[in-house]
């Protein structure tokens, strides 16, 4: 469980760090006017890192599905989690007009992260890592 936490924390640091570098580093930031693009890129980078960390460190001792199948499921569910996070950012930034660095971080990396993580937990538990059927 500690290894899983380290992998998740590493992914979180990459996601939040890269998002903020893309948006706010420099004058203006590389993607200062494109918060959704910055979020998509930061989540993609974090997803690659967490997939590799989970596959080769957290779950290395388990027999698994073929790597291609595992990767497709992992990236598909993380893609939906990304849509949730980017949706929170889009609503906050474009609909509500809350476009400060703090507002973007709270919506994308706070609210969006919590909702996306809750979805991924449910999806992994329900569809990816189902318990084996027990005979009555």
Number of domains: 1
Range of helix content: over 70%
* Most strands sheet: none
The SS-based structural class is mainly alpha
Uncertain ranges: none
The dominant shape is: elongated
Give the averaged pLDDT, no decimals: 86
What can you tell me about this protein's structure?
This protein is an all-alpha fold and 136 residues long. The protein has one domain (2-128). Helices cover 76% and strands 0% of the residues. The chain is elongated. The mean pLDDT is 86.
What's the arrangement of secondary structure elements?
Layout: H1 2-24, H2 35-58, H3 67-95, H4 101-128
Helix pairs in contact: 1-2, 2-3, 3-4
Search tags:
136 residues, mainly alpha, 0% strand
What's a concise summary of this model?
This protein has 136 residues and is mostly helical. It has four helices and no strands. The radius of gyration is 17 Å and the shape is elongated.
């Amino acid at each position: 469980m500690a290894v899983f936490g380290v992998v998740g924390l590493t992914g979180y640091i990459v996601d939040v760090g890269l998002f903020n570098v893309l948006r706010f580093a420099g004058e203006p930031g590389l993607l200062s006017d494109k918060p959704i693009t910055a979020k998509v890129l930061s989540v993609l980078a974090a997803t690659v890192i967490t997939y590799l960390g989970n596959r080769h460190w957290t779950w290395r001792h388990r027999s698994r599905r073929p790597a291609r199948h595992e990767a497709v499921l992992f990236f598909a569910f993380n893609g939906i989690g990304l849509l949730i996070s980017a949706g929170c950012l889009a609503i906050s930034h474009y609909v509500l007009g809350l476009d400060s660095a703090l507002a973007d971080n709270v919506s994308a990396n706070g609210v969006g992260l919590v909702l996306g993580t809750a979805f991924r937990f449910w999806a992994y538990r329900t569809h990816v890592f189902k318990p084996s059927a027990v005979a009555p």
